[in-house]
Amino acid sequence: MAIVYQHIRKDTGLPFYIGIGKTKKRAYSKYGRNLYWNRITNYIEYEVEILFNKLSWEDACLKEKELIQKYGRKDLGTGILCNLTDGGDGNVNWTPKLRKEQSERMKGNIPHNKGIPTPLEDRKKISESRIKKGVAKGKKNPMYGKKGKLCPHYGKKRPEHSAKLKGRKKPEGFGEIVSKNMRGSNHHSNKLTENDVLYIRSVYKARDKKYGGIPLSKKYNVSISLIIRVVKNEVWKHI
Question: What pTM was estimated for this model as a whole?
Answer without folding.
Answer: 0.43
